[in-house]
Amino acid sequence: MQSVNIICLGRLKESYLRDACKEYEKRLGGFCVLKIHELEPVALPNEPSDRQIEDALEKEAEMIEKKLAKNALTVAMCIEGKQFSSEELAAKLSDTAVQGKCWFKNAEGETLECEGTNYSGDMQVIDASIGGFSASYFSLTVPYSKRLEASLENAGPDSFISVGSDLGGWAVLGSGVQRTIFTDSGVETTGENMEYSIRFFSIEEFYLEVTGSGESHIRYVRKGGKLYLTAQDAAFTVKFKSFLEEGSMDSMDFSAGETCTIRIRDDGMEFVR
Q: Domains plus CATH for the chain?
């Protein structure tokens, strides 16, 4: 799912405008992860000099740049720009979602290189389409392999790799992710300055989400009816979620190097405390 960050100076004061924003956020929740960052503008005197205005603009620009996600598409909203229709904006977001470069290697040594919706290599591709998890993602179907390694180039906040099998599905999302190895027993992810989310789908209504940031090496292993999660070098949070409800059903925070153990039941999951 795409992430959309709106960075703006100032805050909405009128209640009807705030209510309208909340309604739009709710409606867009099924299509993207929307975050609004309201920054405090630099105060100026009633009759500021050109130098004061310039200094204020520089400070505000620095605040905005700190909120920009690494490798994200940045769109400046200004009156000098081109106005998009709803259809043009939707097409732009869809095209952006399937851009990027990645490489795959399976246990048999076969490789596949993907750039946007183009791909090449000696790994067999059974099907290729835009869609699947979301209408704006490029999906490839390849033969089963015990091990699949994925390497990403300049992973942005909307980078998304998902692998599924009869045992369940794994999905890795976020920026800074450099390499992910998928196996029947789990997933291992490494990267730098990551803002990541790893999800495990095993039961129809429920899924498990692990989130964290920083330089990390995350190991996610399934043995029998339990999951074991460890993140080196950085703290992480584990959440139980349902596709049918908003928010988390249960969650726990863990320190770097600490192992989280989860029991998988037929009707859900639970922490082994």
A: 2-68 (3.40.1280.10), 99-271 (no CATH)
